[in-house]
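Handout, section B. The chain below has 101 residues.
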Amino acid sequence: MSKHRYNVVIAGSGPAAMEAALVLRRLAGDLVETTILTPDEHFVHLPMTVLVPFARSGSERRALAQFAADSGAFRPIGKSLDSRAAAAGRAFAELRDLPAR
């Protein structure tokens, strides 16, 4: 039986995107190749930033490239998905132009 490899694209780099990529890797292993599509270079846990004005260490910033290398769960691509294209059903045309791994 041959294994088909699925390409999964997650738009965004928030906590839900990171968790989805990590869980996909754990559950599906080598059956998926996950790409995180985001213009951001860092993952920032935003809920913790409310502590910054109170002289507490707020959020932790992690470079997405390093997080991707450490986890092996995804590859980050510095691009945003145009919400107008997504609404018009043209998102897949934009995703076809992503660089190959």
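Note. The chain has one domain: 7-96. Compare this with the example in section A.
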